[in-house]
Amino acid sequence: NHFSVSLFRQHQQTLLNQLREVTGTTDIQLLQQALQVSNGDVAEAVAFLTEKNSKVPQQDETTYYQTSQVASDRYISVGSQADTNVIDLTGDDKDDLQRAIALSLEESSRAFRETGITDEEQAISRVLEASIAENKASLKRTHTEVWSDSPNPHDRKRIDSCPVGLKNVGNTCWFSAVIQSLFNLLEFQRLVLNYSPPARVLDLPRNQKEHRNLPFMQELRNLFSLMVGSKRKYVDPSRAVEILKDAFKSSESQQQDVSEFTHKLLDWLEDAFQMKAEEDSVGEKPKNPMVELFYGRFLAVGVLEGKKFENTEMFGQYPLQVNGFKDLHECLEAAMVEGEIESLHSAENSARSGQEHWFTELPPVLTFELSRFEFNQALGRPEKIHNKLEFPSMLYMDRYMDRNREITRIKREEIRRLKEHLTVLQQRLERYLSYGSGPKRFPLADVLQYAMEFASSKPVCTSPVEDIDTSAPPGGTTGQQLPPPSSGPASAPAAAPPAAQQQRVPVHKPFTQSRLPPDLPMHPAPRHITEEELRVLEGCLHRWRSEVENDTRDLQGSITRIHRTIELMYSDKSMMQVPYRLHAVLVHEGQANAGHYWAYIYDPHQRCWMKYNDISVTKSSWEELVRDSFGGYRNASAYCLMYINDKKPFLIEEEFDKETGQILSGMDKLPPDLKQYVKEDNEQFDKEIEEWDAMQARKAQQEKLALAAAAASADPEYLEQPSPTGDFKHLQEDTERAISRAAAEQEDRSPEVLLNAAIKLEYARLLRFAQEDTPPELDYRLHHVIVYFIQNEAPKKILERTLLTQFADRNLAFDERCKSIMQVARAKLDLIKPEEVNMDEYEMWHQDYRNFRETTVLMVTGLELFQKSNYVEALMYLIYSYQYNRELLLKGLYRGHDEELLGYHRRECLLKLNEQAAAMFESGEEPEVSTGLGIMNELVVPCIPLLLAQEAEKDLLAVEDMRNRWCSYLGQEMEANLQEKLTDFLPKLLDCSTEIKSFHDPPKLPSYSTLELCERFGRIMAAVGRAPGEGR
């Protein structure tokens, strides 16, 4: 019948639009041929069209990565609650555009290997096989590739009621971003926490959906309960993630990219709640809370070949195209109108086709997917769109509602008319601002001004070339030719040039030697002009310039008023009745093939934005959100916006206790089974903390006993002198030299008098060292602990005891005088009372000095290796020396070494390693590729959080350089195995977290004597200098 034919034509037109959007082909005949050849199968039609543009055969292997972000079609699956007229893009209907998009995105994993695409390789089944293989591989990733927990549980302890993060268990930052956004919708959180499975399926699930969805719901409840009441800083979502990943292996799964994860999640939740709703509602139509929360309806009003139609359709996540639009309203306006719609409003029976969409019912949670990918037909792969797209924190949806259809059409028509008028005005203004017929244009007002200035200039009576002597070069110097010979003695003096000019060969320097004659005017001027001519001309030019300026101002004012009118078109109260507040922004950083995901979520109670980046949850700001989400800045941009109805506060309001009226928080939110689950997990974590504390207490006690024993039986290692020829011979020589000088200066040579005199002399010598201004290669702190103590203002009692310890060394007993002084010094040490010198403080100062020497050894070794270009071995020495040195400097300026010097070499070492690894990867040969990626995974990537943590500009630039180097490979052709390795590696490199995930142990320290350490320090500092001459 006629109605069926109309629907068929409408359906065919929809398929043509879908093919045009996916493939970029605009040839209508070619699109119709593709549909005819494929019998209406969009996937086969895309294959036919892409094959038309390429004859290069593909390799067999296909891979598809879970880290890919994808552009979806306009309508999203509604699931089991969908009407018959719902457009479902996750079902089996081959007419669905999502199948074609999934097909085109298959190319993203092969784009580096080829530019051609064959029909067979674009089959949807190949995408599924590849996605299963990728998920299987991701589940088998080694422990070193994911988060590594700190051994200290205090580092993993939740602070007060801070939000709980989610551990990245292997390329699962996408999971964290989506789950956190949903969890912070408190109504959604309550629905999940209070969900109980239907009684009829508790014992034996009757179908595959129940067998899969109910366990997932339980794991999601467990995960949410831990996010509510855990004492941990972050929790592990592995069990829920694995169930979700397993579903991608099933034959009924059509997509597994990041945007489809949310669809899949909501589908499962909808199915689970539908089972419960059907059980609870007896004789009534069951209400599914997931549908009521996330799904809305729109009315499609259209004309197909002159025949009008209206269809009501459901939608979930609403996709919007980004390319070509500057803000969210422009995207929505374009999405609401398709084709040529003039015939919708006219009574004429036009053959044109088009349709408008009007929302009849908006969901409480309104989600927009921003399609930041387009299919590059020439390269045969999707590319990310980095264009800037602005979106508001408060979005008014009134203009898109069906109930406002007529007034919106009037306003749209008015805006269209204003924009046409605006275009005319802008074109007229452009003629004033860019006047002229040649390639160079100037503002007309300026042209008239220049003409007036020319006419008003002082007239000149000669040609501009008549007063120039062409026989001499510019600037008054002689030319290449000699002056003409003189005819007699009288002319000789006048014709002879200066001797200096005769001997010099002149060189013409047009920009440095030309000099203006004093009477030459600064600007060109008329040759002849009468006063009458000048008066008339000036009058005309003044009047014309004034007219032009007035016209320009009028045009600019009209343009500004039109812009303002358009901006305020929907600002009246009647069009601000459907407010939606921005709840969450999901951000992707990277390219089409790989990247990292995080979320910004608004906290209405603290009234601030929070950044959820895996295990890291930090306070943020609207400014940071704008920088990372609008796009156009680096490679980060929003790919999903979640708005909530601002007139439905229950979405984000806390629950109240029905009896007490108090807000339920923490464990009080949870049902009994989840309370017990969280309680057991918290008890396990408490036990872990207790065991750690007990172990640390035992270690501290053992160290204290060891230190006490060492203090009783021996001196600090840098004051010990085991033999005259040992490592510390210089210290013994200094001590003996002080005793000899004291004996020479003192008449009373009793041991106690000599000891006091020798200590004063030694202290005076070391004080001079401490106060001396030395070059970078000479650091007296390494020569003696007292110099370090003086520079850092150690207490006097600490200095005295340390000097006594130096003179109490048993190795001084080689003659009677030294032996007697040593005995007096030891006796004085024994007489010092505990209240006079705090031994804990004494040991702390000496421990700081030991740390300083250890840091120096690390620094010297690292710099020596760096100078030898041994960057792999140098890195850990430089990393640890920087970290230890930073801890020292927190206590005082002179506690450590030059932080800038260490920071520079740490940064440069990472950049050098990045270059080496990139060069190995570029070789494309094994084992170089694996070695290069090993360097990145094991050395460079774990160090990146250290550079990000302090937010130093030079370090941030270095990280950006390293990331850009690897991201640049995404646009190059490479073998399939290299593409797979790159796609697996990039998310780790692009991870923005500042959490230290896993790290190497400190390198073993070589044993240096003081003299050797000072010599090596001097040599390396002389080589590198305190501050680098060049660098970032």
From TrEMBL:
Pfam entry (one): USP_UIM_N
GO cellular component: cytosol; nucleus
E.C. no: 3.4.19.12
Location of region: Disordered: 461-522
GO BP, sorted A to Z: protein deubiquitination; proteolysis
The entry's keywords: Coiled coil, Cytoplasm, Hydrolase, Isopeptide bond, Nucleus, Phosphoprotein, Protease, Repeat, Thiol protease, Ubl conjugation, Ubl conjugation pathway
PROSITE patterns xref list: UIM (PS50330), USP_1 (PS00972), USP_2 (PS00973), USP_3 (PS50235)
Catalysed reaction equations from the record: Thiol-dependent hydrolysis of ester, thioester, amide, peptide and isopeptide bonds formed by the C-terminal Gly of ubiquitin (a 76-residue protein attached to proteins as an intracellular targeting signal)
Enzyme class: hydrolase
USP domain ranges (all copies): 164-646
Primary location group: cytoplasm
SMART domains reported for this sequence: UIM
Superkingdom to which the source organism belongs: Eukaryota
Job of this protein: The muscle-specific isoform (USP25m) may have a role in the regulation of muscular differentiation and function.
Quaternary structure and interacting proteins, as annotated: Homotetramer, inhibited form. Homodimer, active form. Interacts with ACTA1 (via its C-terminus); the interaction occurs for all isoforms but is strongest for isoform USP25m in muscle differentiating cells. Interacts (isoform USP25m only) with MYBPC1; the interaction prevents proteasomal degradation of MYBPC1. Interacts (isoform USP25m only) with FLNC (via filament repeats 17-18, 20-21 and 24). Interacts with GAPDH. Interacts with SUMO3; the interaction sumoylates efficiently USP25. Interacts with SUMO2; the interaction sumoylates efficiently USP25.
Membership in a protein family: Belongs to the peptidase C19 family.
Protein name (Swiss-Prot/TrEMBL): Ubiquitin carboxyl-terminal hydrolase 25
